[in-house]
Specification:
With 148 residues, the protein is an alpha+beta fold. It is 19% helix and 43% strand.
Length: 148
């Protein structure tokens, strides 16, 4: 009986030490945080990144059906990197999601279409940018059969 009790105590101590090491490592590397101060101050769709400046191109809200790619663009304010997700809806129905991307403070240009060229059908679309299921920003765009 004494031996079983000793084994339980040793396993308990080892588990506690392993858990503490895991928690310290996760906090030290930034995987876990007590709070996030991320805020998306600009969010829009654009045609990509300006090659000369590295910044997003101007906002575009109407894309042709045969567009090569559609980008979610904006500016993120945060004190450290955060994981963001982008959720695409068509007429308020879920289309697809892009999750678990790491971003730091600054401008971002993130491709929305899972493949190139885009395969969106004509209609009204919405993109939400999320952090841990909290919507930080939302924008709408239209896919049309006509050239804008």
């Amino acid at each position: 009986m004494q031996r079983i009790r000793s084994c339980i105590i040793v396993v308990g101590i080892a588990g506690t030490v392993a858990g503490a090491i895991l928690a310290i490592t996760a906090f030290a590397t930034g995987e876990w945080r007590f709070f996030y101060d991320a805020k998306v101050t600009q969010f829009f769709t654009c045609a990509g990144q300006d090659p000369s400046t590295g910044l997003p191109m101007k906002a575009v809200t109407i894309f042709p059906m045969d567009a090569e790619q559609i980008y979610a663009c904006g500016y993120l304010e945060t004190s450290s990197w955060v994981r963001l997700g982008f959720v695409v809806f068509s007429d308020d129905h879920f289309v697809h999601t892009i999750y678990d991307k790491k971003f730091d403070q600054g401008y971002f240009v993130e491709p929305v279409c899972p493949s190139s060229p885009c395969t969106f059908v004509p209609g009204l679309y919405r993109i939400d940018v999320e952090r841990a299921r909290n919507v930080l920003g939302s924008t709408e765009f239209i896919v049309t059969t006509e050239k804008p």
